[in-house]
Give the backbone structure.
Amino acid sequence: MQTPFNAYQLVANGQGNQLQLAKRILPALGPHEVRIRMAAVSLNYRDLLVRQGLQGELAPNLIPLSDGAGTIVEIGSAVTDWRVGDRVSPAFFNGWQSGPYRTAHLVTALGGGQVDGVLSEEVVANEWAIVAVPDHLSLVEAATLPCAAVTAWHALFTRGGLQAGETVLIQGTGGVAQFALQLAVAQKARVIIISSSDAKLEQARKLGAWQTINYRQRPDWDAAVLELTDGIGADHVLELGGPDTYQRSIGAVAAGGRIAQIGVLTGFGPKPDLLSIQFKNAAINGICVGSVAHYAALNGFLTQHRIHPVLDRMFEFDEAPAAYDYLAQAGHMGKVVIRLTDD
């Protein structure tokens, strides 16, 4: 008989959802499943939307969060590629192993709809829906990767084909932005970061940003990008803001460039005028995280370049609600992590 363990679940309270600590017992493993004792999990902006009830209907008592890492403590009878003691991280989509994205994959996302996430002392995952943690990373560091880092990889490398010497414009310094900066710098691209915080821009420069723009001082930051690039614009634009930034992203993208449509930080407002995309022969790529194969490729790149995620603050498991509140304040620079066990 399995021993009960602690997990947080989301319970509707009339104004979104609230976190509630509960006891859970996992069912017996299927032949192709593994049981993971989680060491750490991390938060994304998506998790705030889920708690606020802005991501659609949730399964009753859903365990939230998509990002985490831990150690395998039990394997199913048919599992051949994993062993007890392996350090692993579940992928964001447990149904998208590789190949083209299909709309059916969306409902397999962890922690935001119908599939339990990882804010739990233990989780069960399919053997094909996990990846090995790079040897140079701690489990705390690996817990930051499944959503934000895979999204940045998918946008810049899988869909963007990022090459050395190209210019990348990144909005802000949040999770996806932070990873995009580190990955692009490792690829020897020129990175331009925009933010309203001089302190965060200074930190971005320390991480290798080529140029930075404070958009409070330069509200026409698209024009500033053109100035910095001799009128050419950015080959890659990570569009993380939404309706308040999209038109300027279109203005800043180079002819033949790519806009990676990722975020909605400013809400779900008016649609931009896309006509100039046509006359620039530019492209917009919708990016929704990535597959297990994308995650494995990302980890290979992280290992090759010895990249470590930037951590902002660590909370303990019993401080999970405070971690949500801290992320909502939007003052972080790096990932917000909840630790469950000693790594």
DSSP finds ten helices and 15 strands in the chain.
